[in-house]
Amino acid sequence: MREDQPDKFWRKSRSDQSAEAEESISEETKGEKDIEAPVKKGKAKIAKEPKDEWLRFVCISDTHTMHEELGPLPKGDFLIHTGDFTTRGPLAQVEDFNEWLGRQSHKHKLVIAGTTESFISIW
Length: 123
Prior knowledge:
The protein is α/β, with parallel strands linked by helices. The chain folds into two domains: 1-45; 57-122, no CATH class. Helix content is 29%, strand content 10%. It has two helices and three strands, in the order αββαβ. It has a three-stranded parallel sheet, with no helix packed on it.
């Protein structure tokens, strides 16, 4: 399996696991009378292009002032940065990150302070 084709690896992994999962589900639920949900058999499918009604989330973290080095981010509806965008929070680093964030095309942006941004609670 080539490393530059992660979707093919994922498909293979999922199809290898599907038979095992169906067997374990039937063994674990033997005799139970809960909600019955049909289990589809077959290969998992990965969409090549997102559909218009999908929401796309782009998640990043631990950039430590290297956000400019990321290059273009994937397109999406939401950009979420889950912390550590500075190296201990000098105001200039926060302002630089904020300017970079403003240039991103995502309609919604959520930034969560990380351990290197603990100073934010005192602002």
